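Entry for the shared binder. Reason: the reviewer on the internal report wants the predicted structure included alongside the sequence.
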Amino acid sequence: MNMKKFLFSVCLALLGIHALAAAAPFALTTDTRFNHLTHKILAQEPVYFYLNDDSLEEGFYEKITEWFSYPLTLANAYPEKSLRPVEKYLKHGQNRATYQRVSSPERADISIYVESNYYFFSKCGRHTVGCLKANNVLYLRQSADTQKKLETLQHELGHAFGLEDLYYNQYPSNGPTYGSGEQSSIMLYEGKLTCDDADGIIHSLWLALKQKNPDTPDFHFTSFCTSKRKFKNAYMVGRVPAHVDYQNTRTVYTYCTDGRPHHILKINPSDPKNLVQMIQAPIDCDYIGKNGQVLHENALMPLQLSQMPVQKIHMKRQPVGQQIFKHFLPAESGSMSVTFVLDSPKIPAYVYMQDETSPDKKPIVYLFAYLDNGYNIAHQFHLPQYDTQGPEGDFFIYKRENPLVYCAWESTPSASCTGTAEETEEMQNLLKTFHSYFKEKINLPDSKTGWSEMFPRPAIEVAQQWEQVLLENYTPLFILKQRTEKELNRVFVKK
């Protein structure tokens, strides 16, 4: 192993990053906590299970053996697909006699508890029917119907055999592991096993075999789902860059040409100090971009806002409409840009992020505007994941010196304003003026539902962070701030 690869593997171990996780539509985890049952299958030993609910015993046998019988059934239908490296282990796993119920959880390889809501919620939370904890302890919610419990049981057994969640089309819902979300799956929302799960269990067994015996030969496999999806050693070959939006954060995935994960980035408009975070650092490979150019590691490293280049300007007079910088965030897929503009006396400066993946509209992801009258304006764009009606934008204004005085853009803005009647009227007029201005200037999207009154403080805190970063790093805005405050003080003294 060369020094680069050795250092990278050490870094992964220290950071708890699962290097194989981004390899395939099914999501694999190399966490041995969840691979214990897989190793029992490889040893062709009995799997001992504890179950506190007799009514689910037959269902347990059915769901656990199906994980192994299903890929064998598919292989019979496609004899050209060789499962030779793992075939004997699949046959061991599909045998009902492999699984033996024991009366004590201390003797069990996996323990399944069906629990009342109160106890279940304390272990798994309120928004699920089951969860798998450390040491293969599995909880199911008693109040769920039998069918749902069995579907969830099969899903959680997938975790026990080394597979991860595929919720949110690739977003890491339960840890730093990923899948493409290209296919329906029991590990996604499907209530039964699919071809994608069959791909997954085959490669989970092979990876465990490789872990046990490093001399295990390479494994080439064509997916049960489509002949266009090919794997080498559990990596899907020829994966293209992709991005997924979840909770107003964009996760960007890139891969080496041989399918190995190149790097994983997160772009977070709500954290201007760290707009781009490296979730998985680049491995030592040249990555071929969309246009065929080779992108090396140093071309894809994340940048902080404070590191972005700034055009040199003279402050002898206040500039109008001058762009300080426009920078494209480092992402081969899911690119966003950040633009900082010194505008007019009414709007001394504003910064906005734009989604470059939408060539028609290029919606504004985030906007922060510094006004000359003691107010700031901000716009938040909800990165859509399930929203088939299009994006929603929230547009609001608040006082710099007293952020508790704010107003949101809605059809009836008075319902979402604080402050005195005079302040409310002033803010409403400013919102109308500047909403029209930015809509024309930078294609600001319309607000569909308006900014929720329930969450004003977090949104204002994000805007304050943008202001702080800009003031600390960009002299033009700091000078404008001094001028603005001086002018405001002069007007106040006159009054």
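Summary line for the report: The chain has three domains: 12-229, 242-299, 313-494.
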